[in-house]
Amino acid sequence: MTAVKKRGATAAAIEPKSKKKRAFNAQAFLESSGVARAVFEYRRSQRIYSQGDMASNVMYIQKGGVKLSVVNETGKEAVVALLGPGDFFGEGCLAGVPFRMGIATAITATTVLVIDRKEMIRVLHEEQRLSDRFITYLLTRNIRIEEDLVDQIFNSIEKRLARALLLLASYGKQGAPQKMLPKVSQGMLAEIVGTTRSRINMFMNKFRRLGFIQYSGGAIQIHNTLLSVVLHE
To answer: Is the pTM here over 0.85, yes or no?
Structure first.
């Protein structure tokens, strides 16, 4: 893990010169404004924080991906969410939660921007556009968590796996989705879907035979046709 302290120019420095209103770019603001922050780089499978750690900052993913999970008293781990570039996490500290409620782990080489709790509160109060973006993100993620719960209760393993792969590929997000996923282990997919590795292996082989996915040098190429599995009743 490497860290670089940064403090940029004022927010005015990133205001567009054109009179035409542009969509607010949270990453550009956090990278270029006078926000005191640190940038950390994590290796694949490296833990970012552990359950029970002190919660004192908010994190923003610049590139890569993060798995959020929880572990019960017997050591069984359950995946809560998979996050990608443009996502925040660790925001519980803003509500006064003193400790991390789960575990955050990099699922590929990941760069994270870390903002101290007090600094994040200050910036949210002073920059309305960032505040709006942050609230929208939290609402969207709450909806996603509800969808995940419904998916877990009502959908088959095959459909849950297809949905997980599409979400990992950022299908449906703004901008072009990833066509090639970094190497994701079948063990991790089993944790996400809530099944065994052997079942994951069976359905991954089926998806490959049907042309929905393709392996290339350890990475997984996702085809849009995989969506048909999720939409099929």
So the answer is: no
